[in-house]
Amino acid sequence: MTPVELSRTVLCAVRRAVDEGELRVAVPERAVVTVPGPGGCGDYATNIALQLARPAGQPPRHVAEILQARLRGSDGVADVVITGPGFLNIRLGGTAPVALVEEVLRRGQRYGYAQSPNADHLSLTCPREVRAVVLTDALGRILRSQGTAVHTHCEGEIPPEWVDILGVQPPERGQPTPPHHAVRPVPAPADPLPLGRDAARWALLHPAGHDRPRIGDEHLVQRESNPLFRVRYAHARTRALSRNAADLGFDAEPGDAVRHPAVTRVLADHPRVLAQAAAHRAPDRLARHLVTVADAVLPLLPAVLPRGAEKPSAAHRARLALAEAAGTVLAGGLSLLGIDAPDHL
């Protein structure tokens, strides 16, 4: 469930409470859903009860209790906890596997994106340092995926090879406008350009901004010890399975014939990871999530295709759909990091 979808769910809870006579308010056009603040819990939080308390003529906590009861019965919501004067803290539950896979395949690489732009805008500023510039570029991509209008600014002219080799978008000219966020990670200890675009960006983005990145040939190694290789290999395997299935005369079809909770759990978590990566200004959260997705889906892949004289079944089609959904999430996540997801590796 994306933040936009959760906002709609919150508004539906308000509307039901109004229709049933427990609240006498005008249903707002929008419910603000954010990452929980200090003292909060769960995946998301909303202050809708505080917003409605005055027009409803009731204490915020009582309004929160009314909405809590209705939200707990909503699809995709595992639990709702009230904190402070009336904040609703929402923990998401697993999406039904079939519906989840269908949604991922329908939305493609835009799965987890905001459905429409929001009213937020932000200026990102950074020093003229290669890691800061790459981090700013990736953060801008992630924020835009969540509906925020982003402008990037650098404290100096960036070398053209950073654009040509690392694929960063040239920062805008002129002074940044508020609100702005300064991107100042621990600088790169060496020149990452010899690694090439994909490995260099991964080396700079995979560690948290406060950690010192390692710039070495380990990012080029084509083995399981290299997280970037595992992510790209998992994606390439899903694409190869789709080609092989077509040769065998069958394609993907989401279904309940087979369940893989480890894979569906990480796929369902993808929208939340994108929202938190944007909220915390942390592309490393997305990078680590992609490793988790790859590690979850790789054990599934050997069972996707029929073996020997076995005929394709509903289980094979369902496994293929799940594998394609995982490959879609991997490709979309790598794209937001500015890294290529090749079909052959």
Automatic annotation (TrEMBL):
Keyword Nucleotide-binding appears in the UniProt entry: yes
Record key words, sorted: ATP-binding, Ligase, Nucleotide-binding
Record-linked Pfam families: Arg_tRNA_synt_N, DALR_1
InterPro entries in the record: Arg-tRNA-ligase, Arg-tRNA-synth_N, Arg-tRNA-synth_N_sf, DALR_anticod-bd, tRNAsynth_Ia_anticodon-bd
EC number: 6.1.1.19
Catalysed transformations (reactions): tRNA(Arg) + L-arginine + ATP = L-arginyl-tRNA(Arg) + AMP + diphosphate
Class of enzymatic activity (EC top level): ligase
Residues covered by the Arginyl tRNA synthetase N-terminal domain: 4-92
Record domain DALR anticodon binding: where: 231-345
Protein name: arginine--tRNA ligase
Organism: Streptomyces lanatus
